[in-house]
């Protein structure tokens, strides 16, 4: 009987404590700055082109084959009258967010620091009606960093 | 006088418990044949979560495999990663920076805490408390997972350990955050203890139920808290120390009877030991490197084979790695604790009541991702 | 490094001497190549016909007392057959030993050890369905992880291909959906 | 006009009362469900429903609407008659129990002279419905749950009746209002704490609430007899469950806590009498919710042992003491002493049995 009373005492003390849950859609938890959502591509503001040269390193490193990369000759290269030193540049890039397992290996594999894990956009709230809508193409991948809307930690 | 002990003729019926059942802890199916409320036979069916992790890892290089370890043992991811990473390091004969080792130890023990919280909560619900232990333990587990998220960036599939150290260093406020979380965990353990351990109905439901003695438990190859509850003093952290467990002072908790209560109580005490270990580890934490020098991105191991076992929350998590000199395993075998522990279920369940079957299954704390791989 | 290796080999030598003196009439040999040696485990090779007898002695011998079967698995050596690997442990003396036996491809049968350690039950079932090894006298030789009607393919053999997965992204997909510029 | 009609026409009068009872039953069940969710949430340190209406007040309404809109499924292999009829066998007795519940001195549908007997008799009818539901569903979990419900319901009927008997002996009546009036100075809880415990336990078992929710235990038999029910039929079971909860709590209040009478006497206005009843009932219901979140479920054999080997013998002892004291007209304090003694004996027995469990361990 003593034990039962003790259990009831514990629950009653919890009754008097403050609830620990939040009303979720109204109040969001602040994501930590190391937060690791889906990979995005970074934008070289000084040359107005992506950092990515389409070298296939991330595509090869990806354990789940969620990336497809196609490279092209850079029209903005110095030899062509442009400003950039990149001979090759990314032509098309797809990441299938439905397949990505957010393992961070593509970021480690990249030699140009052109890809990073997003930490502002809460990837866990991605929901679409068609699975194909989760396949992101190059403009979508670049949009966030191009507009400057990203936390510093990602790029550093 | 008539014979009052005359048996009434009864009919055995088969009850299909699972794969969709609230207390099979995943997609586990057991076919119970019952006579009234008594269980006379049990057939276990596993494999509903079989994803072929071993075969998949054989097609991937060593770093890519880490993510798959997370997905086999999804309640103690750090422990699973540790076994795998240690196997690769052993083949490579790598020297790991000291700081990385200590951080690994802290994370592994924190993960043990969170896994045991999960166990105690789910176990309380199996016993029939309306959600309370589950919510209390999840309250604490949430804080632990928040901490993991701050460190690794992910809440569940961390992919944080690398062969040679860690993917990156922990945040600056790591130590103070760990202490903060430990403080709340202690409160959580106290709550669970008060809620369950002395409750008479809980004792009546768990004591003398699902007993397995030491000899049987060893014969079935059980490990971890389930084995220690039977009174076997076997903890890989003590028997074959890895990381820096030989420099740390902690006790191996053993039970006496190997019943359900002991399996619960051993885990509860182990949580207290884990807190003790983490507190000692924090003192050893010095600044330094977290990734070894030779840890290149695409590792190529010399040919050879290695069997690494570590003490995961559920028991021995072994990785048997055979390499033929390529950058990927030739054969990878995951020896999961749940797989061996679950085999012994039949011995424990037959002869008890239906309500006990649920409690016994809860007490051996299986993770189906680890059992099926 | 050399110190560690020397310590290890000294430890193995002790255990080897013990096993050698305790178990007679069984043909087994020790793996001498230190690079192939598993970490802190002594590696022994036993002939297929003797393996049950050998394991039984390992368990029941009072001096050795290997009472704990850690793991049982198999390795597909492709042309050279299939290797069955037993990992034993002595809870009393804290010894580890790894025992291997090779099955030729034309005769993939071996006696079960479930009568020695009950722990071998599910492990043997798994090896049996994944590698196509038949364990004689196994009490419950059904499939364990795979559906019961799959009896002709053995996924963990090297000859078994990994299933092709459909890649949705890239050129394989309708460009009107993917290509942002055309949207 | 309308009032005249009501006064002269007893049929219409009763019809109106019954209809208002249906309304009361639905509203009280819905608010009880809301309260249980909110209170259990606080015990869990959660927030509970917040999204529907202010503070989630409309959650029960939303649930009810959802349940009404759901398809009423009957398994192909189910026994149509017993499957379809079972909810009524559970629902109607729960409803009939409300008829004689004493909210105040005057405001009742019908106050029977043998009201207590009527209540006890009606409350056990629902077991038939449970067994029908379990049998008719053609599901093994449902069948196990139904048989458990039958065993448990029949067993715990006895302590319930015996506890009521103790009170009836004290107040020399089976009329609930008379029982309440007899407590206007001192409530029965002071004289009969052990029958209160007995009644509380047995009522929990009758209602299949934790820690005696064995027939519906989610972690074992996945909802028991209701496994196959959906939509409106399932909600009828739910409604009946919460109505029984309300009735049993009011009964506890009436039998042991002095109903509307104690501590202000009989001359309080009707409104304040209702308030007093509600206040005491809420307190009892809160304790029932509190036990639900704190105590694990018992096992069926332990439940039976507890009932037949502990509760019933002790209940008979209490009746014996009561009769002895009342017939010899000894001072009433002896009633309290005997009752508290029995309560202490119960605690000793429970502790002893737990210790025995520990002893086996050592050996």
- Number of self-contained structural domains of chain A: 1
CATH topology of chain A: Alpha-Beta Plaits
- Identify the biggest protein-protein contact and residues per side: B-D, 40 and 38 residues
What is the β-strand count of chain D? Answer: 0
In short:
Chain A is an alpha+beta fold. Chain A has one domain (35-155): 2-Layer Sandwich (Alpha-Beta Plaits), CATH 3.30.70.
Q: What would you note in describing this structure?
A:
The complex is a heterotetramer of chains A (156), B (373), C (183) and D (363). Chain A is an alpha+beta fold and 156 residues long. Chain A is built from five helices and seven strands; from the N terminus they run H-E-E-E-H-E-E-H-E-E-H-H. Chain A has one domain (35-155): Alpha-Beta Plaits (2-Layer Sandwich). The N and C termini of chain A lie far apart (60 Å). By secondary structure, chain C is of the alpha/beta class. Chain C has one domain (2-182): 2-Layer Sandwich (Beta Polymerase, domain 2). Chain D is an all-alpha fold and 363 residues long. Chain D folds into two domains: 1-69; 79-301, no CATH class. Helices cover 71% and strands 0% of the residues of chain D. In chain D, helix 4 packs antiparallel against helix 6 (126-136), helix 7 runs antiparallel to helix 9 (193-207) and helix 7 packs parallel to helix 13 (300-327). Chains in contact: A-B, A-C, A-D, B-C, B-D. Chain B binds chain D through residues 13-16, 21-23, 34, 37, 124-132, 135-136, 139, 195-196, 199-205, 207-208, 256-257, 259, 353-356, 358, and chain D through 40, 43-46, 140-141, 144, 210-211, 213-214, 217-222, 292-302, 350-351, 353-354, 357-358, 360-362.
């Amino acid at each position: 009987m003593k034990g039962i009373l003790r259990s009831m005492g514990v629950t009653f003390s919890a009754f008097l404590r403050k609830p620990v849950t939040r009303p979720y859609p109204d109040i969001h938890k602040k994501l930590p700055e190391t937060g690791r959502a889906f990979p995005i591509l970074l934008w070289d503001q000084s040359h107005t082109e992506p950092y990515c040269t389409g070298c296939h390193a991330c595509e090869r490193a990806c354990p789940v084959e969620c990336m497809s990369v196609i490279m092209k000759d850079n029209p903005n290269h110095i030899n062509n009258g442009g400003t950039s030193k990149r001979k090759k540049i990314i032509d098309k890039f797809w990441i299938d967010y439905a397949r990505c397992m957010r393992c961070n290996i593509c970021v480690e594999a990249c030699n140009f620091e052109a890809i990073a894990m997003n930490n502002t956009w809460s990837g866990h709230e991605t929901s679409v009606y068609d699975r194909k809508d989760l396949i992101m193409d190059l403009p979508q991948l670049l949009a966030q960093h191009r507009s400057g809307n990203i936390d510093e930690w990602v790029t550093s | 006088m008539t014979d009052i002990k005359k048996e009434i003729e009864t009919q055995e019926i088969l009850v299909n418990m699972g794969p969709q059942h609230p207390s099979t802890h995943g997609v586990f199916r057991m076919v119970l044949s019952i006579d009234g409320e008594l269980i006379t036979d049990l057939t276990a069916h596993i494999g509903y979560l079989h994803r072929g992790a071993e075969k998949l890892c054989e097609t991937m290089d060593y770093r890519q495999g880490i993510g798959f370890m997370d997905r086999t043992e999804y309640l103690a991811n750090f422990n699973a990663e540790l076994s795998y990473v240690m196997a690769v390091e052993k083949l490579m004969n790598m020297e790991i920076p000291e700081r990385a080792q200590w951080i690994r130890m802290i994370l592994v023990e924190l993960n043990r805490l969170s896994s045991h919280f999960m166990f105690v909560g789910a176990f309380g619900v199996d016993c029939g408390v309306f959600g309370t232990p589950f919510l209390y333990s999840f309250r604490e587990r949430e804080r632990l997972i928040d901490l993991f998220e701050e460190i690794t960036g992910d809440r569940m599939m961390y992919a944080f350990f690398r062969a040679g150290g860690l993917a990156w260093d922990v945040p600056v406020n790591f130590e103070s955050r760990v202490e903060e979380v430990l403080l709340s965990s202690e409160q959580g353990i106290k709550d669970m203890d008060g809620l369950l351990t002395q409750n008479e109905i809980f004792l009546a439901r768990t004591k003398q139920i699902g007993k397995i003695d030491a000899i049987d438990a060893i014969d079935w190859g059980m490990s971890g808290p389930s084995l220690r509850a039977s009174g076997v003093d076997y903890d890989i952290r003590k028997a074959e120390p890895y990381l820096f467990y030989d420099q740390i002072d902690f006790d191996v908790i053993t039970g006496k009877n190997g019943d359900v209560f002991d399996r619960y109580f051993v885990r509860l005490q182990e949580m207290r030991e884990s807190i003790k270990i983490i507190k000692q580890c924090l003192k050893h934490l010095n600044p330094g490197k977290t990734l070894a020098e030779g840890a290149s991105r695409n590792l190529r191991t010399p040919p050879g084979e290695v069997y690494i076992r570590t003490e995961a929350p559920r028991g021995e998590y072994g990785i048997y790695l055979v390499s033929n000199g390529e950058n990927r395993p030739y054969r990878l075998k995951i020896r999961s604790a749940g797989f061996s522990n679950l085999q012994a279920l039949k011995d424990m369940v037959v002869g008890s009541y239906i309500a006990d079957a649920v409690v016994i299954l809860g007490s051996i704390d299986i993770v189906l991702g680890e059992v099926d791989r | 490094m050399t110190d560690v290796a020397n310590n290890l080999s000294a430890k193995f030598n002790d255990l080897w001497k013990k096993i050698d003196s305790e178990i007679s009439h069984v043909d087994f040999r020790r793996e001498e190549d230190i690079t192939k040696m598993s970490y802190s485990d002594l590696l022994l090779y036993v002939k297929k016909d003797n393996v049950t007898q050998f394991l039984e002695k390992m368990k029941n011998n009072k001096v050795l007392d290997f009472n704990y079967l850690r793991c049982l698995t198999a390795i597909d050596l492709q042309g050279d057959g299939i290797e069955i690997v037993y990992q034993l442990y002595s809870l009393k003396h804290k010894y580890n030993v790894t025992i291997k036996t090779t099955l030729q491809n034309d005769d993939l049968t071996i006696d079960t050890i479930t009568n020695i350690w009950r722990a071998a039950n599910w492990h043997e079932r798994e090896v049996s369905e994944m590698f196509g090894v038949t364990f004689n006298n196994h009490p419950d030789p059904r499939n364990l992880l795979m559906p019961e009607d799959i009896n002709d393919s053995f996924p963990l053999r090297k000859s078994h291909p990994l299933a092709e997965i459909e890649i949705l992204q890239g050129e394989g997909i309708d460009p009107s959906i993917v290509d942002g510029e055309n949207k | 006009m309308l009032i005249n009609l009501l006064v002269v026409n007893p049929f219409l009068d009763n019809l109106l009362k019954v209809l208002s009872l249906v309304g009361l039953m639905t509203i009280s069940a819905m608010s009880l469900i809301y309260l249980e969710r909110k209170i259990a949430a606080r015990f869990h340190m959660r927030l509970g429903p917040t999204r529907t209406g202010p503070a989630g007040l409309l959650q029960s309404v939303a649930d009810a609407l959802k349940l009404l809109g759901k398809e009423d499924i009957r398994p192909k292999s189910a026994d149509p008659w017993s499957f379809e009829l079972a909810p009524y066998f559970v629902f109607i007795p729960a409803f009939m129990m409300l008829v004689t519940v004493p909210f105040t001195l005057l405001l009742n549908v019908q106050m029977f002279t043998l009201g207590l007997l009527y209540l006890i008799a009606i409350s056990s009818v629902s077991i038939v419905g449970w067994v029908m539901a379990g049998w008719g569903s053609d599901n093994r979990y449902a069948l196990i749950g139904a048989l458990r419900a039958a065993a448990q319901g029949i067993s715990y009927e006895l302590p319930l009746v015996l506890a009521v008997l103790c009170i009836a002996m004290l107040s020399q009546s089976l009329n609930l209002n008379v029982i309440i009036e007899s407590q206007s100075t001192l409530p029965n809880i002071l004289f009969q704490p052990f029958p209160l415990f007995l009644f509380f336990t047995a009522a929990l078992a009758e209602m299949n609430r934790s820690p005696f929710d064995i027939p519906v235990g989610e972690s074992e038999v996945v909802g028991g007899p209701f496994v196959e029910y959906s939509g409106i039929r399932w909600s009828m079971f739910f409604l009946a469950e919460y109505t029984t909860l309300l009735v049993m709590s009011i009964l506890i209040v009436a039998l042991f806590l002095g109903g509307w009478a104690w501590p202000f006497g009989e001359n309080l206005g009707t409104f304040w009498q209702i308030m007093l009843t509600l206040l005491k009932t809420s307190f009892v219901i809160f304790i029932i919710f509190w036990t639900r979140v704190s105590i694990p479920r018992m096992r069926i054999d332990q439940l039976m042992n507890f009932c037949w080997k502990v509760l019933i013998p002790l209940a008979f002892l209490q009746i014996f003491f009561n009769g002895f004291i009342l017939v010899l007209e000894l001072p009433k304090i002896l009633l309290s002493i005997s009752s508290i003694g029995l309560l202490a004996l119960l605690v000793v027995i429970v502790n002893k049995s737990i210790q025995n469990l520990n002893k086996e361990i050592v050996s």
